[in-house]
Please model this.
Amino acid sequence: MAGNEWINGYLEAILDSGASAIEEQQKQAPVNLADRGHFNPTKYFVEEVVTSVDETDLYRTWIKVVATRNTRERSSRLENMCWRIWHLTRKKKQLEWEELQRLANRRLEREQGRRDVTEDMSEDLSEGEKGDGVGEIQTPDTPRKKFQRNFSNLEVWSDDKKEKKLYIVLISLHGLVRGENMELGRDSDTGGQIKYVVELARALARMPGVYRVDLFSRQVSSPEVDWSYGEPAEMLTGGPEDDGIEVGESSGAYIIRIPFGPRDKYLRKELLWPYIQEFVDGALAHCLNMSKVLGEQIGGGQPVWPYVIHGHYADAGDSAALLSGALNVPMVLTGHSLGRNKLEQLLKQGRQSKEDINSTYKIMRRIEGEELSLDAAELVITSTKQEIDEQWGLYDGFDVKLEKVLRARARRGVNCHGRYMPRMVVIPPGMDFSNVVAQEDTPEVDGELTSLIGGTDGSSPKAIPAIWSDVMRFLTNPHKPMILALSRPDPKKNITTLLKAFGECRPLRELANLTLIMGNRDDIEEMSSGNASVLITVLKLIDKYDLYGQVAYPKHHKQYDVPEIYRLAAKTKGVFINPALVEPFGLTLIEAAAHGLPMVATKNGGPVDIHRALNNGLLVDPHDQQAIADALLKVAACRMRHPQWQTDTPVDEMAAEESSFNDSLKDVQDMSLMLSVDGDKSSLNGSLDYTAASSGDPVQDQVKRVLSKIKKPDSDSNDKEAEKKLLENVVSKYPMLRRRRRLIVIALDCYDSKGAPDKKMIQIMYDVFKAVRLDPQTARVTGFVLSTAMPVSETIEFLNSMKIEANEFDALICSSGGEMYYPGTYTEEGGKLFPDPDYASHIDYRWGCDGLKKTIWKLMNTTEGGENSKNSSSPIQEDQKSSNAHCISYLIKDPSKARRIDDLRQKLRMRGLRCHPMYCRNSTRMQIVPLLASRSQALRYLFVRWRLNVANMFVILGESGDTDYEELISGAHKTLIMKGVVEKGSEELLRTTNLRDDIVPSESPLIAHVNANAKVDEIANALRQVAKASVGM
Model:
């Protein structure tokens, strides 16, 4: 093409202006195209076309263009580059529009959900109580006084709890977890969360009344990592150190490493999702063994179950939900960082579509795990109030307004129709101050660094920490104030924006040095792609801005070096910065403040509350490069004039703001999970400050103030009498399951187009029976279970029609996990089967049958636009024959109008209803069972109830099935998939986004396949092979 000066000019304007210039021009009035006399095409292109395009993305291409000598090739590259910019801009605007549409639809759905809840629950309220509608909640004018009214009624976890002997389970799956020499910063998965959970385990074990704490993590036996991560157990502490407390053989805190996934590979957290079920089964086995051991030591022969199961992050939260459901004990969740918030931040950058983000970060599976965690959690521990309002508020499963209404109704004893919202409690992580050395504000401090590294008078330098030498060797003038950033090299930590802000601000470069502590590295090429990309960009930016001698970036540091790094920055009168896109809490900000460093921090997340409490710096928009530079310049210059950052915040305002932390601690005595709090104000540094607690300091350990006792509700006398009458009809002998060592579970979902069971399933049953009985020795200890979506009456009728006795099976899991039967054992007069009453009680948790019926009928008869389909017939009809006390069944009359499971679950969660919906029987039925009920969880119940290890179960499935099919494939059990047996399942009604690869492992030695026409000996051989393969794992 002839002449490219205009393109050349545009690109030069873009690349020379930089992000700060673009941001500055954005704030100006838009260009008036009609004013041709003053129209600047370059300015118009920069403002209207490439707004917010980061010039560093195109820097490499621009260098190649400049170096090109051939005129035609140069012109071609310039043109391609211009179109690339245009494409990026259009893509970003499209993503922004789609996100705005999604948020608008979500707001409408949330409001509709609140109106439905208010309408459904208003019938139970008196006229005076109807003002408590979801949309009518008023914020109290004096929140501090209102909070303090309830404190006197709450019990404080104190030394009088020493007689208790609790067993607590913590779960943190990803990263490398060990008690000593933690490799923090080794990769994006081994960061602050690892330190937090290890210190929390130690802190809990030292509390009076806590006997044992187990921290579950993944066992990694890989040459890529240290051998210590392959050890099955590691002791952290030996238990309470107080005199007079009996320390038992198994007391204290331990890291328990559960093997799951590939044994010889260290996997990043995004790749662990398909193996979650396998972890749950392994953790369940450990809990059952430990309950027996602790029962012998402290339980008087009775099992000692976990007091609470605390999941950390989405993967552990998902695991904790399943594990707590299997054991029927309360669950606590700490999110640390949240998927929906991360998705919003990535979409805001405009560089990746939602599909690309999901492919990289498995973000949709992570969000689903967080929603499932909210379903099961009694309590959610957050670091800040902002996390509750602006981050958890993005989730379907939590609504601040609805939570307050449901809590108020529960206090008054008014029926909530099965609706529930988890409690949110603000507990800042806290820190250990034992390594903090207070900085003195004396004239000698100015010359101290000079004397340490060697003065101008020729005196020899004093001994200094090794990490100081590692940092100062990068710096031409180490006496200048240090801007310190300490984080792993993760893209979300935003280190590159900080470096650009420093490099492009000449006054800042002249005033201060920049020190980047970016974890530990040996070879950048061996690091993960994300971390390596950040480090490479850092090195290129240092070269681009010629920052040699002004930026320090040491390769290694130990955990014990961190306090020394803070001390070095403090001695230079430096500044600490955390520029992360989102920071869940920001513990490093408190650590830096304890060493006398002011802060510049992101305005997104925990730093907002820290700044409100400490008032020792400035908050900035992490996307605004110029704002970061200005804030650093301001704080560093002020630091030179005033070594100690001064606060001018009135004490009364600080107290009022601080009291807001206690909002979610109010009225906790009404929950099944009883918490202990006192009337003292929350502290940002109290969690692990044992010295302050032991010396009588009013700042209490936040862990002591939250984890208290869990009160198990007393059974009503009428319920006991009714249960006694029911059990009179139960045969006294135990089911045969108690004597089984191996279990064959037939869970084939073979149905015709009307949902009737396919007769070919009977022949497969016969073949499986014969295959197992080929070996008489194993046949004696092998039992059979039939797992089906059919009700028990239809199941028995089907078996009898094919001349199979129900007694051939040791257990029947019916109604998609809604009921459990033991043929030949639990029977009434006349031979009618009697359901397991313990299982019925087990799954009754948060089951709101009446509220669900009303809401589901309304949802299924409402169009996508929110209007009732009055003119058309209902797409569903209640199936009375298949319904029972713990299963609501509907016939699907019009499959085209059936809502997908993820959509239905979203709307139920927004209305506070927690359950397990599914489509089954060839998409002809929709069944709703309790949250803790499912066919996969029923197998874990058999493990807990009859000690029949899940690892010794063989589950026989088809290639497809009901929408709970995925849950049955993965886990510690062996799976035999029969190809061609199930012609059509119900999975197309499961989700909008296909997440199967993130739920089911693509390859596993625990999964085997046979053809539908497989002979008896082929089935027997497949069962033997999958059993042998699992032994070698």
